[in-house]
Amino acid sequence: MPKRVDHDERRRQIADALIRTAATRGLHAAGMREVAAEAGVSLRLVQYYFGTKEELLLAAMQQLAVQFGARATARFREAAGSAGPAGPRDVIAAILAEALPADEDRRTFSIVNTAYLALSLTDPALAIAPLVKNSGTVNDVVAAQLRTAQAAGDTPPHLDPDLEALGLMSMSAGLAISVLVGQSAIEQAQAVIDYHLRRLFPAEAVSR
Amino acid sequence: MPKRVDHDERRRQIADALIRTAATRGLHAAGMREVAAEAGVSLRLVQYYFGTKEELLLAAMQQLAVQFGARATARFREAAGSAGPAGPRDVIAAILAEALPADEDRRTFSIVNTAYLALSLTDPALAIAPLVKNSGTVNDVVAAQLRTAQAAGDTPPHLDPDLEALGLMSMSAGLAISVLVGQSAIEQAQAVIDYHLRRLFPAEAVSR
DNA sequence: TTCTTTATGATACGAACGTATCATCAACGA
DNA sequence: TCGTTGATGATACGTTCGTATCATAAAGAA
Questions:
Q1: Residue B11: pLDDT above 50?
Q2: Residue A78 — pLDDT band, cuts 50, 70, 90?
């Protein structure tokens, strides 16, 4: 076999170029030619790894979800530090903070994620199922963490974990958009998040 | 003067056709030809009333905001009924309920509004300013109503009106998207809204 | 009637897009 | 060395889009 090349790595590079382009010029404006130029490869190669644009869009969407999960995990692992495993509050706080456009990378994620969301609402080719599944999984994780916290006595037992999880994640998504359009500052968004975290975990102090 | 025709009314009809088309096939896919067909007029007439597509997009965006305001106003006027003027809770509940895709009309609004939001993030031609201004105005109204309720003793004084208003509106927007993608049911979204309304107005009972 | 406005029809142009099709070159394992 | 695979280049096809340009018909106030 000649010329060993990591196909998955190449696909990731090209998908990253799409995400970068979509963050600045829009998802619909990110054409095959522009993605190729952003990735530093030829148009022919983009066609080589992704036969169709739809295939490229789907791959980039999935990659976006993977990146988010990895970053959130890394964040609450770091938050826990050497103090044993990460507690429910650390996990939830990490997920919520990761969804806010605090820096350039997360801003890119929020923009492209919003673009995919809007596109999925009307474009049947872009399956809405995986997007919902990813978001639903995060939702379930938050709800499970709340139940754990309730069992430990850190969260008031009268709260509905599923409803609170849905409310938290929805608020986080809404706050991200609010910050993106410049309607509110990132500090305000984080303040709202912190306020509701204090409401859900009244016994513990606010970290950071 | 020959042939009296209400220009504003015609523009409204065409803009409505754009909104209807954008709700089903997407905002970027809503071309001049398709809008003309949806409105039942010729392509030439669309060009006649809106010289540019950008002009049409801006007009439809503004119309979307006007429709939302009118519907929210009508809703809390009806909620108040003959029992004098509408209270702060009625106003806030009406705004939040109006933002949820409970029926076909409101679903259309949510879809197209989300599409505009995503498009504004990357398209400089579509001024983000009016969109932020509209959303910011609603935010201020909610905050003002909260302050009024605090003065009347219906809302706990330790709450920050601005932060609560931002959180409420953001959560409402996030819930709308959650319902649109089918992640959560409209009843769940309304339950989350009701829960937070009870938190903000603990003395009053839940209406409807 | 006459003139201006409203509206339609039939195209046409240039640009951009996704996609496809040639040939060609470099690299590396067998 | 040889053959397979990765990668590039140039280019072309068909479609769709926004926009522009003709001419023309209907309708109502002056």
A1: yes
A2: confident
pLDDT in tens, B13-30: 999 999 999 999 999 999
Distance B178 CA to C10 C1' (A): 46
Given a contact cutoff of 8 angstroms between Cβ atoms, the answer to whether A64 and A116 are in contact is yes
Report d(CA A60, CA A67) in Å as an integer.
Answer: 10
DSSP type of residue B87: P
- Please give the pLDDT value at position B182: 93
* Residues B44, B50, B56, B62, CA torsion sign: negative
- B166, A192 contact by CB (below 8 A): yes
Q: Is B185 in the A-facing interface, judged by CB distances under 8 Å?
A: no
Contacts for A76 with CB less than 8 Å, ≥ 6 apart: A86, A90, A91, A93, A94, A95
Please tell me which residue of chain B has the smallest CA distance to A21.
B122
- Is any Cβ of chain B less than 8 angstroms from the Cβ of A139? yes
Instruction: Report how far residue A160's alpha carbon sits from residue A156's, in angstroms, rounded to the nearest whole number.
Output: 9
Q: What is the four-CA torsion angle of A198, A200, A201, A206, rounded to 10 degrees? A: -30
Coil, strand, or helix at residue A88? helix
At B119 the pLDDT is 95
CA–C1' A42–C24 (A): 15
Q: Write the pLDDT tens digit of every residue in B49-80.
A: 999 999 999 999 999 999 999 999 999 998 87
Q: pLDDT tens-digit profile of B95-105?
A: 999 999 999 99
Q: What is the DSSP letter of B117?
A: H
Are B16 and B63 spatial neighbours (Cβ–Cβ below 8 Å)?
Answer: yes
Give the alpha-carbon dihedral of A42, A48, A51, A53, to 10 degrees. -30
Give the span between the Cα atoms of B99 and B95, in whole angstroms. Answer: 6
Nucleotides of D under 7 A from a protein CB: 3-11, 16-22, 26-30
Residues B143-155: tens digit of each pLDDT: 999 999 999 999 9
Asked whether the beta carbons of A166 and A139 are under 8 A apart, the reply is yes
Angle between the N-to-C axes of helices A104-122 and A129-152, in degrees from 0 to 180, rounded to the nearest 10: 120
Provide the pLDDT for residue B26: 95
